[in-house]
Specification:
Blueprint (H helix, E strand, L loop, with lengths): L17 H10 L2 E8 L2 E8 L1 E3 L2 E7 L3 H7 L3 E14 L7 E12 L1 E2 L3 H12 L12 H5 L1 E7 L5 E6 L12 E4 L17 H6 L6
Antiparallel strand pairs: 1-2, 1-5, 3-4, 4-8, 5-6, 5-10, 6-9, 7-8
Length: 205
Amino acid sequence: MTSPLDALTRKPARATDRAALDELLDQAKVGTLSTVVDGLPWSVPMLFARDGDDILLHGSTGAGALRHVATGAPVAFTVFVMDGLVIADTLFDHSANYRSAVVRGVLEPVDDAKSVLEVLSDKLIPGRVAEVRKTTRKELAATVALRLPIVDGQWIAKARTGGPGVESADWTGVVPMRTVYDAPITYSGATPPDSVLALAEPPAG
């Protein structure tokens, strides 16, 4: 019997493939980790990075919920990116263009917290790892590093694109959305490092 968690039951045509999943995971910066702790639902937004077939996460060793999921509790990790507002001529037909994914499984501890921190950092700020001092043993000891394997049959990705899908004589359309960086705000030092300045540079072409 197929579980309702294994496939889309509503609008199955919106399901996307592994390549689209990887693209979404590489673009998004934040996902939500969810599980059950002491019989109650628990969710927390977390920075993450995809590394091949793994989703990498990290946090403080003092976080009790992270210790809980590190011992094998089943989890779901959700990611959502909004690409545009879809404007129709009725409120009912308004919508949004988006990409989303849910990856289920069991988190596994990663012994090499240093590599996880570096992969995460270079995803958020490419090149920053090479600009800062080495992470200390004390800092690594305070860090729990986890990976969530991306396993076939344990993830669902979907997307909506296009316009409102209804004919109208009134104006309808899409307002595209994207994430942009503003110029950095200095708190100390003279000039922001190259990796930080590169974030705010307009794309080439």
